[in-house]
Amino acid sequence: MAGAYTCSKTFSGFPCTHRQWRHPGHCRFVHGYSRSFTFWFRARELDVHGFVVDFSSLKELEAQLAAQFDHTFLVNADDPLLAQWQALHEQGALDLRVMANVGMEASAELVWGWANALLQGREQGRSCCWKVEARENGKNAACFERLPDWFEG
């Protein structure tokens, strides 16, 4: 197996709330965390600047994270209270984001896709994101890990 270079970048400070309405315990209630995300990048060859990924080129990804997770309320698309949450959003009481799954594991997979869409369009397969850790606090995190099909390395 050929060698590869890796690096990671963490984005933090995305306070948001969510609920896992199907959960029998306290997770069914609205609660919040300041989420953070660590992205692991991989490349077989470095770019012209000697980087796997130039962190300064990830502003678009950081903006996507902020738009989705900064002071927002996340709910599953099948939440039985969705109409009420939408009404509160329309009244300006919360900034609603409807997701297939608000859990940390699914959030890690979602933002993994965002990172790879950005890199695929820009790097033509030279680098990719192979892992994301979505952290809700200092004690709890979930990861999604996969090499994208288009990655050459």
* Annotation, overall tally of beta strands: 6
Distance from first to last alpha carbon? 10 Å
**Topology pattern, helix = H, strand = E:** EEHEHEHEE
CATH H level: which superfamily?
6-pyruvoyl tetrahydropterin synthase/QueD
Q: Structural class of the secondary elements? A: alpha/beta
H/I helix tally: 3
Uncertain runs are none
- By CATH reckoning, the class would read Alpha Beta
- Beta-strand residue percentage: 25-35%
> Any guess at the CATH architecture?
2-Layer Sandwich
Largest sheet data: 6 strands, mixed
| Alpha carbon gyration radius | 17 Å
Instruction: Write down the overall geometry.
Output: elongated
What's the CATH topology name?
A: Tetrahydropterin Synthase, Chain A
Q: Report mean pLDDT, rounded to a whole number.
A: 95
Helix content: 25-40%
Strand order within the widest sheet?
4-3-1-2-5-6
Number of domains: 1
